[in-house]
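BUG-102 | component: ligand-complex export | severity: low

The export step for zinc ion jobs runs without errors, but we want the raw record kept on the ticket for reference. Input record follows.
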Amino acid sequence: MRITRAIVEDVLRLLGEKKLSQRKIAKRIGISRATVGSIASGKRLPSEDRIPLGNDDFDRPLGPPTRCKGCGGMVYLPCRLCQVRALKAKERGRCRHRWQAA
Ligand SMILES: [Zn+2]
């Protein structure tokens, strides 16, 4: 099956929670244990599960996930969640004319 970014992020989230074994994560998501292992180690995925590079939906290379200092999640940096949060905070600040003074 195709391993989408959503699947990779689910696996990384579950791995980050450290509650489930790789085997249980694989079963829950419906992918092979080997694929979970590959995602966990940041190695290239098995050929049948290879992520289509150049796909707009997966523009970041696979690498070992890093603990984000902003949200504490295991993510590929830059952390998209924190980027979005920063953007939202900036938008909110702008409404109150706070950021223009800074
Ligand atoms: Zn973050």
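Assignee comment: Attached the raw record above. The pocket of zinc ion is lined by residues 68, 70-71, 73, 75, 79, 81-82 (CB under 6 Å).
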